[in-house]
Structure formats: C-alpha cells, structure tokens
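Worked example

This section walks through a single chain of length 260. The input is the sequence exactly as stored; nothing has been trimmed or padded.
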Amino acid sequence: MPETTNTSPSGGDRGLRLFGLIGNPLTHSFSKKYFTDKFEKEGLTDCSYELFPIETIEMLPGLLQSNPELKGINVTIPYKKKVLPFLFSTENIPAELGACNCIDLKNGKLIGYNTDCTGFEKSLIPLLQSFHTNALILGNGGATAAVVFVLKKLGISCSIVSRIIQNGSVLTYKELDKKLINGHTVIINTTPLGLYPNVESCPDIPYEYIGKHHLLYDLVYNPVKSVFLKKGEERGAVIKNGEEMLVLQAEESWKIWNAV
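Given that input, the structure is written out below as tokens.
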C-alpha cells in the first residue's frame, strides 16, 4: 500500500485507513454494510468505509483533498465512465470496457480497475449450460460494459436492449418478441428497475415466452428476488440475483487496495 511496505491490512501504527464509495444517489449501499461488517469481523479497527454521494464527478478532486486518509474508492452509477478522465492510469482496465468501479490510491495517484468483471464472471460460470449461447442485456448503463466484456470472453453472443437505440444498443424493448426471446436463453438485467424501494417495477419484456432453458440474471440484489426474477422463476427459468457478484467484486477491490 502507499507509504508502507507492511502487507498486514491492520498495521496498527498507520492510523486510519479510509475507503469509500462515490455515486449519486447512495441511499442504499451494499458496499458500506459489507465492508463495515468485514472490518468488525476481522478486527480491522483502523479501517473505515464511508459513503461519498457527490452531485457531479467534478467534485472528486475536492473530496480527495478533504479526505487525505482515503486509500481506495469504489465507483457506482452514474460515474463508472465519467471517472475515467480523473484517473492517472487505466492500464488495468481493458480498453473495450471503458468503465471503472474501483480506484486504488497510490502515492496520491488514482489507479483504475474494473472488478465488476471478476464478480460477474465468477458468479455466472456455474450457471451456464451448453445451450446458453446468446444473451440479451437489458439496459446500457455503467455495469453493461463489464457484462458485455465477460459474455464475449465466454463466447456468448450478446445484444443490448434499451428504450431507444443508442450507445451500442441494437434492440428496443418494443422489438422483443417470441423469436428473440426464444433465441436468447440468457437475459441479464443491468437496469435499476426493481431495486428497493421501487420493488414493483421490472423491465418491460414479454415474460410469457420465457421457459426452462432460460437463465435470468439480475444485477439488482435488494430485494433478493426482484419482479424480473420472480416472473422468470414462474416460467421455469434458472434465476440469479446480483449479491454474489457484489461480494466477489468487493473482495477483489480489497485485494487491490492491499497489494504492495
């Protein structure tokens, strides 16, 4: 870590090690609870994880100046792409991703990473069957790039669906029909639809065409079973929420922040 060669995360004489999450809004954060519980369980009394809701990404330099003890930052919507110009290095982010969700502060310099990829890939692979060759990605936000990257890496063809054709999307929700649903046995929701407190909302797709060969994956984790997943389960699909992905990406962030 910066300013030390001690590899122990606790390092009692180093003072407070602050980590945090930037985004807007940050009303419900998985990361804060996860890391706070982790620090308590592992006895890391010199570590703290805080939320930093910033109204614009241009507020990031001021945030860093006001919190010199910051050692690592997670990035969430809407700043995963907007943060890139503020990074000293993006060499650890594959060029086709164009999104950062983890920053390591090394000697005052911001080093960017994308741990969404690791979390998504490790949580998806155990669910895949031989007939999972084509995927629909619902939404085109900051997490979409990581999902596309992983699917391509795994040899799964993917098409992005959005309300209007933009930023790489090739289909609109209105175009989804029986043929498209049947031909895409993996459907991944990257939108916040269904996220607490708006638990009754869900992506507008023809769920009646979903069957037992489908895999529905929702990046939403709260509630545990979104309307999107419930509708898929009712039709016999395999379902998965985003909690394990978040745990895996959080642990990957922790490894990065503690690497010498």
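What to look for: The first helix runs from residue 30 to 41.
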